[in-house]
Amino acid sequence: MSNKLFSRIILTAIFGTTAAYMYKSWKANDDKTEFNMNDIELKQTELDIKEIKAKFKNSIWSVKSESGPINFQIVFRNEGERSFGDKPFILDLLTSAMTEGAGSRDAFELKKAFEDNSIGLTVVANGDDIVVTGSCLLRSFDLCIDLLCDVMTKSHFKENTIDEKKQVLLVSLQQMLCSPRSLAKEKLNNLAMPKPYHYMLKQGLEDVKKYTSDDVKKVYKNIFDPRNAEITIVSNIDEQKIVDSFNKVYDALYGVKSNNFKPGQHRSYIDNAGKTVHIEIDNPQSTILFAMPGVELNSRDAFAIAAANDTFGSLPLVCRISKVVRDKNGLVYGIRTSFMWGNGSGGDLQSIITGSADTRPENVAKVIALVKEEIKKLADKGITQEELDRFKICKFAQTVFDTNGTTLAFVSSLRTVGIKSEGVNTYLRDSYQSLTLDEVNIAIKKVYDPDKILFVTCGKTINTEEKKDVK
Fold it and tell me: In the predicted model, is pLDDT for residue 170 greater than 90?
């Protein structure tokens, strides 16, 4: 789940580099080899992207890459957890069981086919969509497509398999009900997000106990509608091969009809902004989660806020908030923030800036005060030109051109928020390369407001007498 369990099938991870950048220099520091992002020289700043027409309603986006494995993604729009109302956990059970036998292969034979041929397959249900991501070598592409068709249309879902997966899911849910972070995450989600995205861990636990293989099969028959599919591929495969391969997928899915799920509505605000909510639980560790409103869909401010978030809290241990709260004051084990902008960034059509920290109960109030203080400093002073330059290099080198997988994720995220294929390189040029410091700092003042933060804390309340005994 995008907000809960992140259930998925992960069989084999394959990595490849597009060699889109190189290091100009290296330096040794205390016997540890390090590099500076400023020492990266970009060799590629645009993508070779083309739309290809196949049987699917939506065109296939093909990004040409001469290195690395083949990476592709099929996004089935509006078939995610939101579409299943107050029973979204059925998709967790479904995705966890999909590769336990499909087509003519039992579970062992199917996994062996993936592993022996270096094929990776991931199926994830987020708030709005179901996302199928694949990776393989060129020599295994035909087999990868065949296995993909089997998994999406011919999974076995045997009763004993469903029972086993139910037990795993039930244990996970029970553990989450004892976890400060999971309880805080549930509360933050349900306070900040609109009702279609709400979930209840306790209710989910009871629902999962009742699910049968027939329930799973019924849902399985109403997802993977080819009319909802958007396909993006990063590879060195010729156009006709791409068409023929994905037409085979279309033919396998032909006739599948979803439940006509309605598209979600994008939001750039959150409910209950400015509130602090506490969940009492007797645990030696406390969790602090917080959220702020984001930006409008396709707003240029999105690029500016991405730069601000990278500097402020995105990179663990080296970002501003970590240096102050963790390094200088020693209050947390770790702290970071994330910027969710539309479906491709966070799984939901909610634009939001979120943050998290884990600490001892006696430090909670101090951490909240410091977070507010640092956000006010960011709003007042903004970021520096050096920080913006580093962000631009990092975005290109690590987020866009690092591997075929990162390129796929980047392009798919743009497609999700409505950018056309011909606009991808314009986006790269205009949105990142030409982004100015003034634009970033003006956007920061619009968005970063300590009075609009929703905090959720979970842990044990420490009163004055108890604090004196804490060592």
Answer: yes
Residues near 80 by beta carbon (within 8 Å), at least 6 away in sequence: 2, 91, 125, 126, 127, 128, 129, 130, 347
pLDDT at residue 8, rounded to an integer: 34
Ranges of H-type helices in 124-199: 141-153, 159-176, 180-192
Q: For residue 6, give every residue at least 6 positions away whose Cβ sits within 8 Å of its Cβ, in sequence order, or none.
A: 124
DSSP string of 451-464, one letter each residue? GG-EEEEEE----H
d(CA 335, CA 321): 7
Beta carbons of 114 and 121 less than 8 angstroms apart: yes
Q: Residue 269, Cβ neighbours under 10 Å: how many? A: 14
Q: ∠290-294-299 over CA atoms, to 5°?
A: 165
438-443-446-447 Cα dihedral, nearest 10 degrees? -140
Q: Hey, CA dihedral for 322, 193, 93, 219, is it positive or negative?
A: negative
Give the alpha-carbon dihedral of 86, 87, 91, 93, to 10 degrees: 150
| SS3 (DSSP) at 42 | strand
What does DSSP say about strands 276-280 and 120-125: parallel, antiparallel, or unpaired? unpaired
Local confidence band at 18 (pLDDT 50, 70, 90 cut-offs): very low
CA torsion 339-340-346-350 (nearest 10°) is 160
Name the 3-class secondary structure at 369.
helix
Pick the CATH number of 276-469 from 3.40.50.300, 3.30.830.10, 3.40.50.2300, 3.40.50.150: 3.30.830.10
pLDDT at 41: 57
How many other CB atoms sit within 10 Å of the CB of residue 200? 14
What tens digit of pLDDT does each residue of 294-351 get? 888 767 788 889 889 989 998 766 789 999 999 999 999 999 998 876 544 344 567 8
Both tokens of 337, joined, read 């923030």
Looking at domain 21-253, its CATH class is alpha beta
CA distance 395 to 428: 10
Check if 21-253 and 276-469 are the same fold.
Answer: yes
CB contact set of 377 (below 8 Å; sequence gap of 6+): none
